[in-house]
Sequence to fold (399 residues):
Amino acid sequence: MKVLVINSGSSSLKFTMYRMGNEQVLAKGLVERIGLDKPQFKYERHDGLKLKETAAVRNHEDALHLVCEKLVDPKCGVLHSLSDVQAVGHRVLHGGSKMTRSVLVDEAVRQTIRDCIPLGPLHNPANLAGIEACEKVFPGVKNVAVFDTAFHQTMPPAAYLYAIPYEFNEKYGIRKYGFHGTSHRYVCQATAEFLGVPAEQLKMIICHLGNGSSLAAIKNGKVIDTSMGLTPLDGLVMGTRCGLMDPAVVISMIKLGMSADEVDTLLNKKSGLLALAGIGSGDMRDVLDAATGDNEKAKLALEMFVYRLTAYLGAYYASLGGVDAIVFTGGIGENSVPIRGSIMERLTIFGCHLDETRKDVHGTAAVISTPDSRVKAVVMPTNEELMIARDTVRVVKAN
Fold:
């Protein structure tokens, strides 16, 4: 089965074309700056051929038409015709509490995505636009929605409710949802397979670390808690997001004269490592470079990143009643040897010790803890697109 995976952002459309018999990536790419000045199109074929060009795209439907043109182009394409596409899988940010699994798109599912727009105002409209564009371009082809929040819906009420009057959850859906769910699910399954132990027999903490970062405490294959909350703003210190803080800080900002939109922009786009390091960048690589010199703010930013993360690890270790594996994934988790090392310095209390001979791992599955460690430390590359493609095949076959 050939499956097209679509990830629509507010001004972007990311795609991957799979042949699912052997899970081969035939082509992948990105259309960005949709509807803005000088939209860019990037395309990469499985044999290494790469294209980069400026293209006139006004909306997601235009972007999808451009992608389809390249997929069937005699010179750079990978399909004989668009009829080769047998199913389309979509990343959808927010499914609320209703969507606990991936589903075939119908009007009820589209309405749920619309209903969740207040919870995901930037992403859900774009995700829906991607679905509607595919329904026009691929008439009769089944579309599957894979929700970023779904994997976390096994959390118990004690973990997902906030200690505020129940009506805020019951009437307005205000509760913890968690994000990066597709990544956490893929990494959970991949880690279990790598360790040769069924996921149903493991307790693990997955650290998805990138520009956006989150932890998930998983017991017997099910999430019992996660660090992101109602939105992706909660939890860890991130590239530009503040993470956990006293809600009264927001009240103080409003009293100082800031509008709700200004506070939202500050906390989501101008905080985190960007604000702490003082170097004009929230990229972990840039912060690490700055911290090698005498930049004390960059050093403090790293210390806060690691401190917050290990505090969550300790809490989740206690909540799980011990842990079998701590797993690093995402751009930072898979590639940053210094950050993993700083975290693992603080894990000796768990009986998890860094193996100096195995620590230099970049983007490949590996155990980096010593053989005698009670808790394994694992590096596991994530692959959200493949998880979406697998779900798409499963759902289509079941329907």
Remarks:
- The domain at 197-384 is CATH 3.30.420.40 (Nucleotidyltransferase; domain 5).
- The chain has two domains: 2-147, 197-384.
- The mean pLDDT is 96.
- The first helix runs from residue 60 to 71.
